[in-house]
Amino acid sequence: MNSDALFVANACPIKVGKFEGFSWIRCEGKGSFLNSPAVKEFGESRIKRDELCLVVDLQACTGMDSTFMGTLAGLANRLTEKSGKLHVAGADEKSRHSLEDLGLDFLMAINPEQAIWMGLEDKARDLLKLKVAGIQAGTVLHARHILEAHEILSEANEGNRQKFSGVVESLGEELAEKEKTTL
Q1: Is residue 53 in some structural domain?
Q2: In 3D, which of 101, 103, 32 has the Cα closest to residue 66?
């Protein structure tokens, strides 16, 4: 088994579902660069189908890395462009703080008091299906995904631009190198 396959095997599950008026994305375990492509693929597919409410369920999420949060911010931006909203359900204090620390609470509704999906959380969770990303870890597409997530975080506010400038530069160089070796 190669190391990229091992990375994918260690990715925590992302489960998804489509419902009347909203779509649901649930992270079980750590939200990371390993499982965020599945979140992005499903979210973008729903937005392309004119979905205006994506719910990201963090009730079973044990933590989030910057790629995962950048992926959420990208989906939130796309929804806002269409007058939609990304909702975060089940965010504990740690998850809320992580999102707020990067200024992402202005892009999404975290534990909103009113929403179309309120009262349907348990039913939605029971009907979810496992989502596997079409992007494999270690590939050029995966490197591009990670870079894009960090660029989105950098654009969210000036503090993030400073915080992630080195990361974005390094990821850009890594991507350029990967693209050279795959030609």
Answers
A1: yes
A2: 32
